[in-house]
Design brief:
Elements: H1 2-21
Length: 166
């Protein structure tokens, strides 16, 4: 009897654990949503609240995330190619190996964001805030960093800073 009850609890626990691990791409945007491996290409997600969301391997190519809150989101290897993200809040976000090629991050807050090995080729980073961000291995080729606050929180990149903060 005890063995049967224990087995039943084990099955229920396994089912609940696997249900939590699965992303439901139809869930509405909200804090801590699990959108792992979901596709939102071309979608208008202006002003959404996705703080601490699971966005690993998700794709937002050519989408609009203007003024969105992605603070603390896990966007490991997510794709934001040609995405409009002016004013987005990515403070403390995990963007390791994320692809932000040609993304518009004008005025974005990337404070303490982890951008190691991220691809920011041709990205618009005008007046973005990189205070405390990790940029080791990040590809900033042709990225416009004019007026951006650099990782030390003090240095502001000169106008026409392309590919590096001058």
């Amino acid at each position: 009897m005890k063995t049967t009850i224990f087995a039943a609890f084990a099955v229920i626990a396994t089912l609940l654990a696997s249900a939590e691990a699965l992303a439901d791409c139809t869930d509405p945007p909200q804090a801590k949503v699990n959108w792992r491996r979901c596709y939102f290409d071309g979608r208008d997600l202006t002003g959404v609240a996705l703080s601490e969301a699971m966005l690993r391997d998700a794709t937002f190519q050519r989408a609009t995330l203007k003024d969105a809150d992605l603070k603390g989101a896990d966007a490991y290897r997510a794709k934001f190619v040609s995405t409009a993200m002016p004013g987005v809040k990515l403070d403390g976000a995990r963007l390791i190996e994320a692809d932000l090629t040609r993304a518009d991050l004008t005025g974005a807050s990337l404070r303490d964001a982890d951008l190691r090995n991220a691809k920011l080729v041709n990205a618009t980073l005008v007046k973005a805030d990189f205070t405390g961000a990790k940029l080791v291995g990040a590809d900033l080729r042709q990225a416009d960093l004019s007026g951006a606050t650099w990782i030390d929180g003090k240095h502001v990149c000169a106008e026409k800073s392309v590919g590096q903060c001058n």
